[in-house]
Amino acid sequence: MSDIHPRIPSIGEDPRESMNDVAEAPGKIWFRSLDEAVIEADRCIQCGSCVAACPSDSIGIDSEENRPTLVRMCTGCSSCWDYCPRSGLRYERIAEETTAKEGLSEPELYSARARSPFQNAGQDGGVVTALLVALLEAGEIDGALVATEDESEPLRGVATLATTPEELCAAGGSIYNQVMSLGRLQEAIDDAGLEDPDIALVGTPCVIEGARAFDLYNHDAASSISLTVALMCTRNFDHGRLTGALTARDVDPATVDKLDISDGTLYAFDSDGETLLKADVDEFEEAGLRGCDECADFIGKAADISAGSVGSPDGETTVVLRTEHGKELWERAQSVQNSQFDDSRPIATESLDETPALDSLASWNRRRAKHFLPREYDGEKPVGISLTEHRDAYEETDREPEPFNPARVHQYEEWC
Fold first, then answer.
1. Cβ 196 vs Cβ 221: under 8 Å
2. Cα 318 to Cα 124, 228, 268, 339, distances in angstroms
3. Domain regions of the chain by residue span
4. What is the pLDDT of residues 225-279, one digit of tens each?
5. Counting C-beta atoms within 10 Å of the first and last residue's C-beta, which end of the chain has fewer, N or C?
6. Residue 64, C-beta contacts closer than 8 angstroms, at least 6 positions apart
7. What angle do CA 386, 392, 396 make, to 5 degrees?
8. Which of 3.40.50.300, 3.30.70.20, 3.90.1150.10, 3.40.50.150 is the CATH number of 31-91+376-415?
């Protein structure tokens, strides 16, 4: 196997047709290389980009561990490597490309809250829920891929395609573990029986980076995504490690109705709103996904719209409009007249001229990422990171590639 990884080409080209100015890729990258560099090295951020990118459906999802795994013969097409934000995809470049191609001249910032009855339907003002309901009512989207809590396992999130206002309201609130959104999108569409739908994708910045890369480089995985909404994020958790950490603090995960992180503190509440736990979020560092340490994109710069609590008063949402399309749909949602909304408008807004708290947290997150990221962080460099470049940067660090789980070696030898 060659370790030469060609760069992802200019926007509009097929990534397999034009790489490093040659007509055909001189070698292949197998899923095994991604597995060693990212998954076995405990750097996977569980976005599902590799699953969605695979043209032969060779990559599936290990439901027990919530991570990618090989399910049939790998063809060595390199797509999983190309689109992974922790291996072949220089994620900071995706934000730059998004801004250059589709971005507003200046992002627009608002403090917002949903009007009745949606203000209590979600986290921090329910704005994302109200926005999606309004766009659904307006016929702009056919549904939204969101995260909901697994009915059979406390605090475990599952990717859900919500296609009704009721389903969107039920999905309100934050889930603090990844749900392999991109890897489950097509399955969710098929299960819903939708043909050529327009789907809003709601996810963490890393999920949006993968989706935006699909869009910029004409990958079929993005064909159904018509709007991206990033949920501001500094860290996500591994479900098993999170519930284990709660149990170690004498909190039964089954009694936790809601988790929240505010000002560096993690709160656990029961169904009556009583506080079960209040702890410094740093105490849960071991429960976090290590790959999150390498992310400098707290705000979600590749998204059409970003949303989070930082920078707005309690009970309100900070909304950042980043692209022309995002602004267009935001304004379209604001024009929706429906008896469900007080005053026939879904969201109350106020412009934000300065966001010092938001800027400060984004700056801290960027500094942290640069500290942990073995490779150079540079939005001007080529989008693609070669396997050789990755190995040179990561080997002999605490994030270097790890050999396969011995139990799976035979499987890879047989399939690859």
1. no
2. 9, 16, 23, 25
3. 31-91+376-415, 96-368
4. 999 999 999 999 999 999 999 999 999 999 998 888 888 899 999 989 899 999 9
5. N
6. none
7. 140
8. 3.30.70.20
